[in-house]
Each structure stands twice: as structure tokens, then as C-alpha cells.
Amino acid sequence: MSTPDLAPINPPAVDLSEPRRVHVVGVGGPGMSAVALTLVGMGHTVTGSDIRERQILDRLRSAGVHVYVGHSREHVVDADVVTYSTAIPADLNELDEARRRGIVTVHRSEVLAAICAATRAIGVAGTHGKTTTSSMLMLALTEAGRRPGFVIGGDVTDMGVGAAWTGSDDFVIEADESDGTHLRLPLRAAIVTNVDVDHLDHYGSFDAVVDGFRRFLAAVDGPRVVCADDPVAASLAAAAGAVTYGENRIVDAEPDGGAFRFRVEYDGDEIASVRLPLRGRHNVANACGVIALAHLLGVDGPVSAAALARFGGVARRFDVRASDDGATFVDDYAHLPREIDAVLSGARDSGDGWRRIVAVFQPNRYNRMAEMWQDYGTAFGAADLVILTDIYASGTQPLPGVTGKLVVNAVCEADPTRRVVWLPRREDLVRFVADEIGTGDVCISMGCGDIASFPDEVVAVRRSRRRH
Questions:
Q1: What is the DSSP pairing of strand 269-276 with strand 260-266?
Q2: What residues have CB less than 8 Å from 203, skipping those under 6 apart?
Q3: How far apart are CA 66 and CA 77, in angstroms?
Q4: Fewer CB atoms inside 10 A, N or C side of the chain?
């Protein structure tokens, strides 16, 4: 196994320059499975454990990870390093045993930092759009022949995976701010897409979120590009002396049948003419950021444009899951107000000619809803019908008075004329949508809980009724 001879910006907490035996706790999670796949690619011996069997575990086994279902102290006895995520309880038996034996036990962010230190790592940060932007950047660098490795928060349709180690000096990483991981990564270049309210359970205040992104930009040892369309991000860019992108560089953007055509200017010159096969002006901005940073990294604009023209998207980002009897069913990860607004507005302005836009939203996390429920009031302005269900806990504890009904109240207060339906029970939700959606409608179900399976459930009910 060899790694590029690059001096790290900060010494990592764990040394991955030589083959190690690494045990990954919670290996079935999207973040931890990405770590495991990367470590195997680097040449390390990797084991992992997860509480239940799931589809991703077979992919990990095929890649060479030895996977245990269930947690046991015996799983860590041969490990040099044990890594875990924020979601793992601190008193889990495997972590307790590793500490008792003096085995190096580190958070996932420290392993990612060590991976970045072995490369010229390029980070994509921001409250929204990280996964799509990271994916597009990775493909632009690939188009330029640079074969970047990557760890991205969702499977890239063009690659079929969300992580890979290629041995290249270049490495693209989604720099997640939810638990401060973005502040631990030694990076040689970065994009910041926006800065919005979220993860207050970790930061305590929005000011602390903003300060985290300020420190993130200050620590990058190389080019930084920041979206000037977001006023908070724009102020951070000005203070850091970063290059900006967004509407200030986008020219003649027009929807084109589920895609967008636009041009990008830099220093007064056109550097790329693009047809992006994605809906939504927010994705045009994301693509502009990719073209801008790739340009600073030596990739010609037409090369980036060629990669973007073939971009197949990312799992759960305006993922058209089915067409059934003239209706379209879309799944999307959007779960914050600005994300929801961007997805619905993108559908409205896409040129697809849908008769109605029907939004189905599953709120996520009790603590998030307690803090932010009022912010959802204006998020559904582009929808003809809004259907809301109850909160998906995502490991958080119920709070008195905090239910999905708070979001219903916010939407109704913002626009008393809007048609809003509240269906907290899943079976009622599936039945109602199966009946309601008609020819020419698009149903966009959104959230980061178990709503991901909702389009399949609805279509199954509709097809079953037609058979009988």
C-alpha cells in the first residue's frame, strides 16, 4: 500500500500510513460504510459491526470487509484502531472493551482527517447541497483524468457507490458540519454552498454555526470558493478573501425540459457553456461552484461542462422513482425549509408541464422541530397540495407538545388559503396519496427518515387496486 507523499496540515489522531486493522462500529450507516470502503481500498484490514442485517452489508462484504451482525466485545480484540460515529452510544460494549484494552478509539472524523492528510483533499461544505456538489466535483476531476478518490454522503448514480479509494493524490470529501467534522479535515481546497440554521443541538446557536464555517474557511490551505447568493456565506467569503460564485457568474440560465442551460463567466470571460440535466436553480448554483473551483485547480471549463452534461444525479436528490398511470413519483432528501423550497420551486420551473405539484413531507427529529417548526411556514409555496405526517425521531426523544402538527400550523398560518392535509399514521398517508394523485401530477415526498420508501408503497397500492 502506498499513499501520496504529502505533508499533513495537522497531524492526524490516527496514523494510516502503514497497514492497520481497523474495526468500524455501526458499519451499516452511510457515513461509516463509506469509511470502511475507503480504508479497504487503502489496503487496511477492516472489520465492522452493525445492529442488524441490511443491504449495504453485502456490498461491504464483497469489498473485503468482515462484517458482524450484532455488537460484541470479541469483535475488537484484534483491532489496532476502533472508529465510531456520533450516533453510537459512548458505553457500547465494543467501545468499552477497546478502551479497556488500550486500543486507539477515535471518532469517524479523525479517520477522515487521516485519509485527507494522505491526499490533496478537497472539501465541500455547507448546510445544503453538499452531496450533489461533491458528486459533480468528483466527476469533473474524473473527466480531467485525475481519478479522484471520494467520500460522499450518498451514492453517486454514475459510480454506483458513495466512496472509493483510487490512489490518486486528489480526494473529494463531503465536509459535514453536523458534528463539527468539517473543522477536523486538513484540506487543500474547498467549496462552501451556504450557511443556514441547523444542528443547534450541537452548536447551541446560529452564531456558533456561522463561526464554525468561518474557522473552516480560515483553515483551508488553498483555493476557496463560496456561494455569494447566500448572504451569510457571502459575508464569510468577504472576510476570508475567498472567490465567490452564484448569480454573479451565471449568465442566461434557462430551464430546458427537466434540465438547465447556462453559461459561467470568470474575470469577465466565459469559461463554460453547460447543459445540466438537473432541475432547480439551486443546482445551477452548485454546478457553477464546481466549475469555479475546478477552474482554479487547473481543469478547463469545457471539461467540467462535459462531465456535468452527463451527471446522473445522487440517490434521494429529486430521484424519479416511478411513473404510474400518468403520475410521477419523486423521492428527495430535503428536510430543511430552504431545501424544501428549492426542490418544489425547481419542480415548478422545470418545464416538465406537471398539472399539480403535491408535496409530502415527513419532519425529522423532535429537537429540530421544537426549534424550527415556524420556519417551515413558507417552505411549501410552490406546491398545490401539502400533505404532512408525523415526526421521524432519528434517535431523538419525544418532547411534550412537539409533533408534526406544529408544521401544519406553521403552513396554515403562513397561507390560510393553502390546501394542507395532516395524516400522522403511515397507512392513512399511503392510502390518501394513492387516491389523490392523478394524471399529470407529480408527487414529491421529502424527508430524511423512512419516507424514502413512500413512493414504492403508494405505487404498489395503486397497481394492486388496478389488478383487482
A1: antiparallel
A2: 209, 212
A3: 14
A4: C
Single-letter code of the amino acid located at 212: G
Q: Domain ranges in the chain?
A: 21-107, 119-309, 319-467
In the CATH scheme, what is the code of domain 319-467? 3.90.190.20
Q: CATH 3.90.550.10: does it fit domain 119-309?
A: no
Long-range CB pairs of 210-218, under 8 A, 24+ apart, other chains included: 210/236, 212/177, 212/180, 212/182, 212/183, 213/125, 213/126, 213/177, 213/182, 214/239, 214/240, 215/183, 216/123, 216/125, 216/175, 216/177, 216/182, 216/183, 216/190, 216/192, 217/190, 217/192, 217/242
Indicate the DSSP class of residue 306.
Answer: H
- Report whether 147 contacts 111 (CB < 8 A): no
Question: How far is C-alpha 304 from the chain's CA centre?
Answer: 21
Name the residue with cell 415527513: 362
Contacts of 399 (CB under 8 A, 6+ apart): 366, 367, 370
Chain segment 150-208, per-residue pLDDT in tens: 999 766 655 667 899 999 999 999 999 988 999 999 999 999 999 998 888 888 999 99
Homologous superfamily of 21-107 in CATH? NAD(P)-binding Rossmann-like Domain (3.40.50.720)
Model pLDDT for residues 284-313, shown as the tens digit of each residue: 999 999 999 999 999 999 999 999 999 987
Measuring CA to CA, how many Å separate 381 from each of 13, 201, 445? 47, 28, 15
CB within 8 Å of 101: residues ≥ 6 apart: 76, 77
